[in-house]
Amino acid sequence: MRISFCCSNTKPEPWLAGFRAALPQVDIEVWAPGAPLADYAVVWSPPQQFLDEQTQLRALFNIGAGVDALLKLRLPAQAQLVRLGDAGMSVQMAEYVCHALIRHFRELDAYEADVAHGKWSYRKPRSRADWPVGIMGLGVLGERVARSVAQFEFPVMGWSRSPRQVDGVRCFAGEAQFSDFLAASKVLVCLLPLTADTQNIMRRETLSQLQPGGYVINVARGAHLVDEDLIALLDEGHLAGAMLDVFREEPLPAGHPFWQHPKITVTPHTSARTLRDETIAQIAGKIEAMQRGEPVSGVVDVKRGY
Ligand code: NAP
Ligand code: GLV
Fold first, then answer.
1. Helix/strand number for the chain, H first, E second
2. For residue 155, is it left (φ>0), alpha (ψ between -120 and 50) or beta?
3. What average pLDDT score do residues 14-22 get?
4. Catalytic (active-site) positions
5. Based on the number of CB atoms within 10 Å of its own CB, is 104 exposed (0-12), middle (13-18) or buried (19 or more)?
6. DSSP letter (8 states) at residue 98
7. Vertex 174, ends 171 and 180: CA angle to 5°?
8. Ligand 1 atom nearest residue 272's Cα
9. Which protein residue has the closest C-alpha to ligand 1 atom 40?
10. Of the residues 140, 143, 177, 214, which has the maximum number of CB atoms within 10 A of its CB?
């Protein structure tokens, strides 16, 4: 059995060593044009040429959760596309979102600014009841985030494509309930996959339905958000702030208004990183299962887009 490793911007050696330790019977090599055909591939942003050559591939393992970039390419028709399922990402996402929420809710930036000026100040405590948090996407990451936010006793709303039930979360589903979901939320967290249906989902028309003083946390993909609409709603005062981890163009170009906007906090696509050991263990386990003829979780529905 042969595995081809084709991950851009990724140092291959530790990955190869990890896979060789986990699957000693397997041949794993970094792909180069014309390399022997593989049975399985481990990929991140592979070139089209790689995909075109893979005529005997059984599965393509993406070392991330989001497959939007891969779905823009022509995939080998016979291969299953398998996304990463958690592998240590959901706890990171929960940390990031809870941090962003609590930092804003508790006005920690304002305290930090006061302290920097030697000022001992108090702000009026806020009521959690006035800060309902709406989470778009209740999948692997969204559900974990929703449960974590609920632990801090914020009212939590969740929105998904199909109806879901999550303890402590008021769940909405589908387009028909989207406006009710937005109107019930003051903080909006985006954890949707990027698909034709979800592109530009955070725009003036939708963001203006959030409760006044709203706060936006985008940890999914930059193309979910219409940048100019966010800035306009912040400048007009309908929204109070935003914490953004993902952008239409990454790295965020120098001179983009997000860098300097006083109500926006930027992080460099780091809210939930791929963790090598967890990822290798998950993919190796799935390859073994597929070799035994068993089904695996995380197979992408290419038509649906996630
Ligand atoms: P997932 O398990 O596939 O869950 C996706 C959720 O979105 C599901 O609840 C799904 O509804 C819902 N959804 C999809 N299309 C929808 C629509 N049109 N309307 C309403 N709800 C819709 O995905 P995940 O693992 O939680 O990851 C979510 C995204 O996070 C990834 O696709 C990736 O882009 C992003 N991500 C970012 C980072 C980072 O570091 N910033 C790291 C990892 C992942 P159903 O439950 O009905 O299917
Ligand atoms: C990162 O953005 C991922 O999709 O895993």
1. 10, 12
2. beta
3. 98
4. 221, 269
5. buried
6. H
7. 60
8. 40
9. 272
10. 214
- Calculate how far, in angstroms, residue 275's C-alpha sits from the geometric centre of ligand 2: 11
Residue appearing with tokens 């000026």 = 117
pLDDT of residue 231: 98
Average pLDDT, the chain: 98
CA distances from 182 to 173, 214, 224, 227 (A): 12, 10, 15, 19
Q: Which ligand is in closest contact with the Cα of 192?
A: 1
Tell me which residue has tokens 């109806």: 163
Q: Is 46 in the pocket of ligand 2 (CB under 6 A)?
A: no
Does residue 66's CB lie within 6 angstroms of at least one atom of ligand 2? yes
Q: Minimal CA–CA distance to 30: which of 49, 48, 43, 45?
A: 43
Of how many residues is the chain composed? 306
Indicate if ligand 2 lies below 6 Å from the C-beta of 63.
no
Could you read off the pLDDT of 31-76 as tens digits, one per residue?
999 999 999 999 999 999 999 999 999 999 999 999 999 999 999 9
Is the pTM for the entire model greater than 0.90? yes
User: Which residue in 292, 295, 287, 274 sits closest to 23, CA to CA?
Assistant: 287
Mean pLDDT on 134-155: 98
Residues 6+ positions from 245 with CB-CB distance below 8 Å: 96, 218, 219, 267, 268, 269, 270, 271
**Predicted pLDDT of residue 245:** 99
Q: How far is the CA of 291 from the centre of ligand 1 (A)?
A: 28
Domains of the chain, each with CATH number or no CATH: 2-87+274-291 (3.40.50.720), 90-266 (3.40.50.720)
Phi, psi torsion values for 173, nearest 5 degrees: -145, 145
Q: d(Cα 98, Cα 104) in Å, to the nearest integer?
A: 10
Instruction: State how far the alpha carbon of 77 is from the alpha carbons of 42, 72, 302, in Å.
Output: 16, 14, 11
Ligand nearest to the CA of 268: 1
Gap between the Cα atoms of 274 and 278, Å rounded? 8
